[in-house]
Design a protein that fits this description.
This protein has about 400 residues and is an alpha/beta fold. The protein is about 40% helix and about 15% strand. The chain contains 13 helices and 13 strands. It has a seven-stranded mixed beta sheet, sandwiched between helices. A four-stranded antiparallel beta sheet has the order 10-11-13-12, covered by helices on one side.
């Protein structure tokens, strides 16, 4: 058993999410605000990871490092054990965070003016990786049917044909909704990419947090041919809260596709790994699985508390999540616009992410991060309830 109820002072560690300076300058909030915006968790890190980093820190050498065999073996074993995905050492490349990696991927496989497709609503850095590199961004809106997202296969096929799409950046599980795509959906998606020669870049970094009773299928296990026509982006950052170490890796079976990205990484001088990256990921994958499973169950209980809470607010509708620690709430019947929404949360002394951040199709929604000790969650929900009751008095 791990003490996930323990509230740690993340301000001491200069956590961006909890920084008094950020809370004041970005959100105009006081020091006692509860942040629910950034997609990280507020639990103390798994003991094995902390021990591994303390052991490495005790060695008075923080110069350039290399990637040892134990890193590759940890990745291979984790993917086989957890996801029944076969990976070979030569396919793996350690990188420095998924967001920066997406920029390198866009640079490697497309030219200026080429079309890149994403589904929306989408994590905004997907769009930035395209537009900041002067590629053309095309968006295929997810279908919101009965408060659940679905892929629009007809629209995706049309866009691949008409816009000469070169690259498809796909999020699985989906951020911000936590939707897990079915094996059939992934097969159909892979078929489209193969038919129109679109390189599929699959971001699966949220897959480590999947609730009991739900089944996550990696894209490679959905279609026998897509592994040779795709780039898989993986990271322990979401499941084990290691975002500050900038740990991520790509897996690319196709030698030509792999060498193209490796050449781009060399152009950008992406060489030595972070000195703490390997100890952290090895400890996460080899020694922290029990902690992860317990944390997932805890977050699932948090999610149920959130469902029950918003069920009492008729103007809000929570999209049921199947993974992650993020809550996607439809508030179109609650607030007249995002300014009204932001002012409400400011008065409640909470942070959140407005739906317009997610490129398009997110207007009228809010994303809340609930991977936190129960005490903090209940306090945050209490603030929402108090402000809701107060605001209703003036209606």
């Amino acid at each position: 058993m791990y003490d996930l109820d323990k509230v740690i002072d993340r301000k001491q560690g200069n956590a961006r999410k909890w920084s008094n300076q950020v809370l004041k300058e970005k959100f105009g909030l006081a020091e006692d605000a509860i942040p629910m915006d950034l997609a990280d968790i507020d639990f103390e890190v798994a003991p094995a990871i902390q021990a591994a980093l303390m052991k490495r820190a005790s060695i008075g050498d923080y110069s350039y490092s290399y990637v040892p065999d134990e890193f590759y073996q940890a990745v291979i074993d984790w993917n086989q054990r957890r996801y029944e995905t076969h990976i070979e050492k030569e396919w793996i490349k350690l990188t420095f965070g998924t967001v920066s990696t997406l920029h390198y991927i866009v640079q490697a496989y497309t030219e200026k003016g080429d079309g890149v497709l994403i589904n929306t609503p989408a994590y905004n850095p997907f769009a930035e990786a395209v537009e900041h590199n002067e590629r053309k961004l095309f968006c295929s809106s997810l279908i919101n049917h009965d408060n659940r997202y679905y892929l629009d296969f007809e629209d995706m096929e049309r866009q691949m044909q008409e816009n000469k799409i070169k690259l498809f950046i796909f999020c699985s599980p989906q951020n911000p909704s936590g939707r897990i795509w079915t094996k059939d959906e992934l097969f159909r998606l892979a078929e489209l990419c193969l038919r129109y020669d679109v390189l599929l870049v699959c971001d699966e970094i949220h897959r480590d947090i999947v609730y009991k009773g739900q089944t996550f299928t990696s894209i490679w296990n959905a279609h026998p041919e897509i592994a040779q026509h795709s780039v898989l982006c993986l990271s322990p950052n979401k499941g084990f809260n290691l975002g500050g170490l900038k740990i991520s890796y790509v897996v690319i079976p196709n030698q030509q596709i792999r060498e193209t990205l490796l050449n781009q990484l060399q152009k950008n001088s992406i060489t030595s790994p972070h000195v703490f990256a390997v100890p952290a990921i090895v400890a996460a994958y080899n020694e922290s699985e029990a902690w992860l499973d317990e944390m997932i169950d805890y977050v699932a209980e948090n999610m149920q508390i959130v469902y029950d809470f918003f069920a009492e607010i008729p103007e809000a509708k929570v999209m049921p999540a199947e993974s992650s620690f993020l809550v996607w709430v439809d508030v179109r019947d609650w607030f007249k616009d995002e300014t009204d929404m932001q002012e409400f949360f400011r008065r409640a002394n909470l942070t959140m992410v407005v739906g317009s951040y997610f490129v398009q199709d997110g207007e009228g929604f809010v994303r809340l991060s609930i991977g936190m000790p129960r005490e903090l969650l209940l306090e945050a929900l209490g603030r929402i309830k108090k402000e809701y009751v107060r605001s209703m008095e003036y209606v």
